[in-house]
């Protein structure tokens, strides 16, 4: 049975076979069987979940990896959580290694903060706790009214650098934009390496769009008062692309939390190659690798892209042998074990600071 000594169950909310691989690895490490359930899409694309065993009074962990069809995966998680709630499960804990819509966590003009909406939906469906990894912004934890454990993949990626990159002592950690400098600095300090920052790339900064300055509707003033003369803010101009730091004759390691549209990474690799870097690696937690990402990586100056298995990407690996995977099922399994046994989670955050 899928019952540990102290009684808990682990389910996978994925209808796709490829997406259940991480769930199988986690349950193997825990020494339990995956819960008996069926998740599928009906002919009209509606999501149906059938739980095949009793969960009354039990603590339930739902593992949900997010494939390319993000919205279907979210519905699968919501429907399964609600099915378990109505089946009288005691606690329902979502294990969501990559939290979807995490980039939409700030106001953009007249848009919406979709990440906050998703947090409310998960709570309404019945989730009481979430385990995730490397949230795009740590402030997302404040969207939830229940505990959120934001685990880190950096120990696994740093171990990969130390064990799999020859002569990594001759490397330099690179932030592809000033916004990524804090994460890059953390890697550089832990590996005792230098730091470089690429500045001036031709892209819209997230902070330029995220402050909601265009949200209030324009209201015509009929009172005749013209308002106050406020100072006019000068428009920003992107400086020419520069690399702050010496990368000549070094191995360049670009670090980030998500690699999806690889255009920025490819452009950064070309700049680093021009500045004299002889090998270029990319380390990221979540390898979404959408659209033509595998082809662009294969044709670029990038030597290797290293991501974790928080997001299924086996198809992309077949298309591009430069993509390598680091397994993080160990820390997810340990988090599940500790939460259920009421043990401290501090062990999983040893030497990890708020800025990491």
UniProtKB/TrEMBL annotation:
A GO molecular function held by the record: ribose phosphate diphosphokinase activity
GO terms of biological process kind: 5-phosphoribose 1-diphosphate biosynthetic process; purine nucleotide biosynthetic process
Keyword DNA-binding: no
The keyword Acyltransferase is assigned to this record: no
Residues covered by the Ribose-phosphate pyrophosphokinase N-terminal domain: 18-126
Signal peptide: none
Record's function text: Seems to play a negative regulatory role in 5-phosphoribose 1-diphosphate synthesis.
Family affiliation: Belongs to the ribose-phosphate pyrophosphokinase family.
Descriptive protein name: Phosphoribosyl pyrophosphate synthase-associated protein 1 isoform X2
């Amino acid at each position: 049975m899928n019952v540990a000594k102290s009684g808990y169950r682990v389910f996978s909310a994925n209808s796709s076979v490829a997406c259940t691989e991480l769930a199988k690895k986690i349950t193997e490490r825990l020494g339990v069987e995956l819960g008996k359930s069926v998740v599928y899409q009906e002919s009209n694309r509606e999501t149906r979940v059938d739980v095949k065993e009793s969960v009354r009074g039990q603590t339930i962990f739902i593992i949900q990896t997010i494939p390319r069809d993000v919205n279907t995966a979210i519905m699968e998680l919501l429907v399964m959580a609600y099915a378990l709630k109505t089946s009288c499960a005691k606690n329902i804990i979502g294990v969501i290694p990559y939290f979807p819509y995490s980039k939409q966590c700030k106001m953009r003009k007249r848009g919406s903060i979709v990440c906050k909406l998703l947090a409310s939906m998960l709570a309404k469906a019945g989730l009481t706790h979430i385990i995730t990894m490397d949230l795009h912004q740590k402030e997302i934890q404040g969207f939830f009214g229940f505990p959120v454990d934001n685990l880190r993949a950096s120990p696994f990626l740093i171990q990969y650098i130390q064990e799999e990159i020859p002569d990594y002592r001759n490397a330099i950690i690179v932030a592809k934009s000033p916004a990524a400098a804090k994460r890059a600095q953390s890697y550089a300090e832990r590996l005792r390496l230098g730091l470089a920052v690429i500045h001036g790339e031709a892209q819209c900064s997230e902070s330029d769009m995220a402050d909601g300055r265009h949200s209030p509707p324009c209201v015509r003033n009929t009172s005749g008062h013209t308002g106050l003369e406020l100072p006019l803010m000068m428009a920003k101009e992107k400086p020419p692309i520069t690399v702050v730091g010496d990368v000549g004759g070094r191995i360049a390691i670009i670090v980030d939390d998500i690699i999806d549209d690889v255009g920025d990474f490819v452009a950064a690799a070309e700049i680093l190659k021009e500045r004299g870097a002889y090998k270029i690696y990319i380390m990221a937690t979540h390898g979404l690798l959408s659209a033509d990402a595998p082809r662009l990586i294969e044709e670029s100056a990038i030597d290797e892209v290293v991501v974790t298995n928080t997001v299924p990407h086996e198809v992309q690996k077949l298309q591009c042998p430069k993509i390598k995977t680091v397994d993080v099922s160990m820390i997810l399994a340990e988090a599940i074990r500790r939460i259920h046994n009421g043990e401290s989670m501090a062990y999983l955050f040893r030497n990890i600071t708020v800025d990491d």
